[in-house]
Amino acid sequence: MSLVMTVLNESGSLPAFLGSLAGQTVLPDELVVVDGGSADGTVALLEEWSRTAPVKVTVIVAPGANISRGRNLAISGAQHDLIAVTDAGTRLAPGWLAALVAALRDDVDVVSGFFGPMWDSWHERLFACVLMPLADEIDPATFLPSSRSLLLRRSAWRAAGGYPEWLDYCEDLVLDLALRKAGLRFAFQPEAIARWSARDTWRGYATQYYRYARGDGKSGLWPRRHALRYGAYALGLAGLLAPSPGIVRPLLVLGFLGYAARFLRRAWRRRPAGAFATLRFLAAVPAVVVVGDVAKMAGYPAGLAWRRRAISAGRNPDARGGAGRMPETAVRIS
User: Fold this and answer.
1) Which domains does the chain possess?
2) For the segment 64-77, what is each residue's pLDDT rounded down to a tens digit?
3) Which residues contact 42 (CB under 8 A, 6 or more apart)?
4) Start and end of every Glycosyltransferase 2-like domain (predicted)?
5) What is the DSSP letter of 27?
């Protein structure tokens, strides 16, 4: 089994990740890493770790490769037909890989792992705990897994056409949809936990969700969902600004609280200790929801504009990723 991932200037987060990898109860046979052109010593760190690593390590240096291209290169360069995928910024639970493997049966092509929050600051905790879904919210029949916690057969990756190399964000969702369209069979494994942290500033958080929504626009995903968001906020703003009876504004507040209920539930389930800390945590949830929604409403049309330009220029933004050819600039370090 091969474990693949991409890196770009990850020297700060890699030691914790590599420690969690070394602590797995089931180890992969190899780790294949594609570096997109790091300038912070990431490759040197990987080379140093490889000297005493419990697994074979291969680093492919491909300057300019985005996440999709990097993952395709890593899978192409992997020696095994069973591929686990994760991100360098995660910390893997000790039984992460064992749980993924345990869910793989003869009638399963893709195992969807799960994820959980980790944090070093109050804002990281707030954003992660509010935004990451709880396991009991997941419908295994429709769940689209993140590629920070995924196991799939090489044949499934090929059938889906690989990761879409024209896309910089939401690439794993596009792969998931291609896998489902190809009729491949999924299993959900909530015990395969890869922990990751959200951004630690409001600006970083807004930028992240702007990019996610821009990726939706580029790939033509979820038009109805985005349209409903625009409509809901337009209706709410009209209700707040219009000279309306006093009952309208309380109804708008109740409607927003209903909309934010799942986010409040997540925050409550993951609340910090202490009454004051809990109140402060819950009070910030509406701001998290609104800032994220505004960022999405700005990012989605930017993505749609990119998509229209690509189509006008004769480029097919829905072309499947293809994968595998090593660019001439890539350097393989085993």
Assistant:
1) 2-199+320-333 (3.90.550.10), 202-312 (no CATH)
2) 999 999 999 999 99
3) 7, 8, 9, 10, 11, 14, 35
4) 2-114
5) -
